[in-house]
Design brief:
globular; mainly alpha; 2 strands
């Protein structure tokens, strides 16, 4: 349970940082931030792997660059589902997904979010 809450906080902080850094991404309040973090967690766990498998041929042809589009699509889909979490267009969605991914990875390193994986 502690790991889930820590992961949720890391995702929420990464989303807040992404909204602060990029002009095309906006979060209107803490409720939208919390729902956005939950939606992004769900998109990353369920929707993005399905999209990755469905778009595998084009991802191979583009040498992996199309995976940025898949990440942007899942980021934009999460913003579309959550009121108060807005992404203005395609490039802000791709940039937001990239900044969100990098910041959540770095925050995960500092908070020790991968302790269980390291113990195996």
């Amino acid at each position: 349970m502690r790991s889930f809450i820590l992961h949720f906080v890391v995702i929420a902080l990464a989303l807040a940082g992404t909204a602060w850094l990029l002009p095309g991404v906006a979060v209107s309040g803490w409720q939208a931030l919390a729902l956005g973090a939950l939606a992004l967690g769900l998109m990353n766990a369920v929707v993005r792997p399905v999209l990755a498998v469905l778009t595998l041929p084009i991802t191979v042809v583009t040498l992996g660059l199309f995976y940025l589009v898949v990440n942007g699509a899942s980021f934009a889909l999460a913003a579309w589902v959550v009121p108060g979490f807005d992404v203005v267009g395609f490039w802000p969605a791709v940039g937001g997904a990239l900044v969100f991914s990098l910041s959540s990875t770095v925050l995960g390193w500092f908070t020790g979010g991968d302790d269980k994986k390291r113990d195996r």
